[in-house]
Specification:
Elements: E1 2-8, H1 22-42, E2 45-49, H2 50-60, E3 77-79, H3 84-97, H4 101-119, E4 124-128
Helix pairs in contact: 2-3, 3-4
């Protein structure tokens, strides 16, 4: 199970594809796949294993973390620029408790994503849970 973190422009509320034709559904999925590929090339996408993240968050204080401690890894969430400073503080706390190379790599990847977010002020951090 994973948590997908993606920097994206603000999104309009998605239209329901419930009554869409198969061709419309296929086109919608193709457009999403292209967007994810571009985001990954730009360093705007991070696919995190939920178990690894939860273990690290629990070691760093669990629900006392203002952003990561409140994030539901099984639901979708959107964070805006006001959430960046407390999120960076959460990542600092994760770094302080990272016990092995795997956790260190996760923290480094999260830090890189946040750095990319700092350079792209018009984007929001979309978190897509399993």
């Amino acid at each position: 199970m994973g948590l997908l973190l993606v920097l994206r422009p603000p999104q309009a509320h998605p239209k329901s594809l419930r009554r869409a034709t198969r061709a419309q559904r296929r086109e919608h999925r193709r457009a999403d796949a292209e967007e994810w590929e571009i985001a990954q090339q730009r360093g705007w996408l991070l696919d995190v294993e939920v178990e690894k993240l939860l273990s690290l968050v629990n070691s760093a204080g669990g629900t006392r973390l203002p952003i990561l401690g409140q994030l539901d890894p099984w639901a979708d969430t959107v964070l805006d620029r006001r959430d960046l400073p407390p999120l960076e503080a959460d990542v600092d706390r994760l770094e302080a408790v990272a016990g092995d190379d795997v956790q260190g790599e996760l923290v480094a990847a999260m830090r890189k994503l946040l750095l990319n977010w700092r350079t792209e002020p018009d984007l929001m951090l979309h978190c897509y849970g399993d």
